[in-house]
Amino acid sequence: MSYLDATQELYKEAALNPNVGLCCTTNPIGHAPGLMIPKIMQEMNYGCGSTVSPQDLVNEPKILYVGVGGGMELLQFSYYSRQRDGVTGVDSVEEMLEASKKNFVVAEKENPWFKSDFVRLLKGNALDLPIADQSIDLAAQNCLFNIFRVEDLKKAVAEMYRVLRPGGRLVMSDPICEQPMGDALRNDDRLRAQCLSGCIPIREYTKVLTDAGFGTLEIRARRSYRVLSPNHYPTDVLIHIESIEIAAIKDPMPQDGPCIFSGKTAIYYGGEEYFDDGKGHVLWQNRPLSVCDKTATALAKATPEIHISESTWHYSGGGCC
Ligand SMILES: C[S@@+](CC[C@H](N)C(=O)[O-])C[C@H]1O[C@@H](n2cnc3c(N)ncnc32)[C@H](O)[C@@H]1O
Questions:
Q1: What is the pLDDT of residues 96-131, one digit of tens each?
Q2: Segment 154-165 mean pLDDT
Q3: Residue 12: is its pLDDT beyond 70?
């Protein structure tokens, strides 16, 4: 049985017998006025963060959600899109599609504004999406891509890139891990399917996205997620896993490389009214400017009179790259 088959098995079980805590996150469930999230959807929250942000949802966007789980985030997206077929959910596990369909009927009863046909459910594989080229404004996945081995991860990201319109965005939440993992962990298909032993360092994760062509990345959150300890898992050392939320925007790739915003801020404190680097970045005296990592490095070399903050891993827009 391949690791992909093991993943199908695990999520078939998780669809038939909801498993609270299969994945788990410390961020609160996203509520909004008039949005009731059915209990069953909360119990089937198999994500490790959130992919739903009102800032991404402008002009009646067509939304694609891959790996539907219990359907909670599709309901949250529908809250903002409110149109027939506004959100397309794709999942490879028949039982998960059936479970989420039932959950949308419950959601319809609890939310007068919601209709089940706001969501279109399709059986399909993240590695070969049943979606037309450049037909989507916002694509999302939560806690699925980390399961893929790197060659499959590249395919899944390339598929998301293919279906997005220019300027569209891919919003994701996934575990990452900065420590090496031994083969006993890496090759444990069930732990991989549980989002514990497939995750890779943030730099490798972001490189897969920029190699696929995404010109801008926003790292929106980074949190502690799990520890794998030798007394519970096949490892000799304690392994710390984090989770991230990240948006990859299908902007043209800048000639000098991608703009990755990890939450750095530049503040000029020199003797002039402002500092102009001649490349489109003007820093006014003692005013903060969010900058991407590439610009932060260039500014630090351009003059000593600029303070560059550490990455906060909590970027939510603004500034320049
Ligand atoms: C960890 S769960 C996350 C569910 C949901 N995103 C959430 O946050 O609750 C992974 C989901 O991806 C689905 N899945 C697994 N392998 C898949 C694949 N190759 N293509 C599409 N969906 C897949 C599973 O059935 C499950 O619904």
A1: 999 999 999 999 999 999 999 999 999 999 999 999
A2: 98
A3: yes
Per-residue b or e along 27-40, where b marks 16 or more CB atoms closer than 10 Å to that residue's CB: eeebeeeebebbeb
Dihedral of the alpha carbons of 251, 89, 2, 207, in degrees to the nearest 10: 10
Q: How many CB atoms lie within 10 A of CB 188?
A: 19
Beta carbons of 47 and 74 less than 8 angstroms apart = no
Ligand 1 atom nearest the C-alpha of 148 is 19
Question: CB of 114 closer than 6 A to ligand 1?
Answer: no
State which H helix or E strand residue 171 sits in: strand 164-176
pLDDT value of residue 31: 83
Are the beta carbons of 133 and 158 closer than 8 angstroms?
A: no
Nearest to 16 by CA among 123, 95, 100: 95
Q: Ligand 1, atom 14: nearest CA belongs to which residue?
A: 67
Q: Given this model, what pLDDT does residue 103 score? A: 98
Cα gap 9→205, rounded to integer Å: 26
What's residue 24's pLDDT? 64
